[in-house]
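S.,

Sequence below, as promised.
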Amino acid sequence: MSHAHSVSHPCPVRRLGRDDKHYFFGYYDKTVWDKSDRYVLGNRVAMMDADITPELVAEVGYFDLQDDNRYHSCGTTTAWNWQMGCQLQWLDGEAGLQFIYNVRRDSKNGLYPGFGSAIHDVATGQTRYLDTPIYVAAPNSRYAVTVDYSRLYITHETIGYAEAGGKRTDMPRCPADDGIHSVDLKTGETRLLVSYDQLKQFHHRASMDKAIHWVSHIEINPASSRILFLHRWTERVEDETCFLHRLITMDPDGSNLRLLECSDHPLPQLAADFDPNAVGTYDYEKSEYQISHPLWQDNEHIIVWGPHHGSIHYHLYTDDDHAQARVIGEGILTENGHMTFSPVNKRWLLTDTYPDPDTNERVLIMYDCDNDVRYDLGSFYTDPNLRKENRCDLHPRWSRDGNLVCIDSVHEHERQMYIIDVTTLVNQA
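The prediction came back faster than expected:
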């Protein structure tokens, strides 16, 4: 095989939803499939692209792939967004079939009043509630980690939850009593792992001093023994090109913090005469300073789109004190995407692209890490009128056996979930 090339390799695509409703899952970092690959999680909504209000309801449930893809509705939530959904995810460490998702909840005991989470048991049909929302649950299902969605609604609206009074105006910029919390999934008990103030002091940069701080993209490794996250800060939340980024890892108790990458850089956008309206919808995703979409490859390695030594690529980092980074797909994976390694064979990296500015097409990609070949599985149109907050990225997600891929897409002018069969690719020698 010649070095570094891409080939078209169309794969069979089938749609899951059968009725006149819209279906989506949200993010790429969690699989929709249960351990048996029979059930596929998804949200059902009445409309494709509404502006989200605190009253807007999304159904929560799953498709049964062995029963004509029938959708089982298990509950509803008003704590969701188009980009990440309601953080719906299977609790793999629990007996039987259980999943967790975020809800609005009037609780006096929770960290963040107005939000909580629900754990649904498919066998019994019972749902129990926790007084705190989650960001991601550990693979062992013993704990989850969380942040304040009200803060995200201010700093990065696309992944926050709408609030009745609009965005809070009293949000502290860098508090010592809030940050990343851990949530015990049995008891609901919470503890602060690392505060925003601690993060500001950790390898401090001058650009942090006047900024508002937040954390996103929290991911826990398969052994549930290390947590990665993006620490972000800015003086101008309205303009994402002013966001500054760091990739950090820590132990589940908040100790052993490691700084793997920092993209602090000068910001001409903070000048008084800068016009934020001149920034295109996807310019931020295409910035050469962006650190985005980090995910564990295994217990010790992290794939991320970001800059290292002044050059932006897909980079694979070692989670150790040396933080070695090597480029994946140099010259062939040349733009930001949502990437995950096959759960059964790290040879295969699944990813996508943001919409092409001329054709509005997004490409679904599988990259063969062993042979340096990019396979384009399909191209999917998106409506250019969708905004940041209600856009629909493909967000590809693997089945547990590594033979199928699930995406969200609007190429049929509806928001729907699709399954793509990639067996012809992954089973080749």
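Residues 303 and 316 are 4 Å apart (CA to CA).

Coffee later?
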